[in-house]
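Form 7-S
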Amino acid sequence: MYKLLLSWRYLLTRYLALASIISVMLGVATLIVVNSVMGGFAEKLKDRMRGLQAHVMIDSRSADGFSNLDYHMQRVKELLGDELESISPVIEGFAMVEYRRREYTNFKTGDRDDPVNGILTAESAPIVRTVRLLGIDPASRSEASEFAQFLQNPENRSNPTQCFELRGAAAEHHRRHFVMPGFTPTLTGARPLRMDSSTEPAEPPPPEPVEVPQALVKRFGAIVGH
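Output:
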């Protein structure tokens, strides 16, 4: 009790000591809060990165990817065994997308972006964008990452195999703004993308025979082509 009374007396009579103690308390509290926030942010960032990217990515040296995908996936499963959580194939490439922006005006409210109750009043020129194209298997992708959790529609989150079907307000907005009547999307890239599940590379089709006019054969004797 004597020590407590002595400490309390010096704290009340000497304001410099009280200010020093309060400043140390605030500094330590600030340090604890900042470390906690930064630690939580770093852990959340790691979880998000693990949800988007796999721990190990196996790339093919060929520009066309793996020609025997199922064989390689089975080999990975056999080598890792129970240590493998999930595996998912991915095709990555670049493409050009062309679309038009539509403007729907609601004359009652003055809203110029109302695709539900508005009337089409303007349409932009064709817009061309370069996009990064990823081809995935929704079922295995949902097991290997948090892909299904980021889908907008609840039905798609519960059934990720149908994730490419637009539903609800998103489908109506996309249809009214970007899709023209008879619209058929076409993605063009530097090379065709394919995923072949066979164990052997696909052989190119045989060349079609070309009929050569007899007049040219009689004139030149023979025609060599390829």
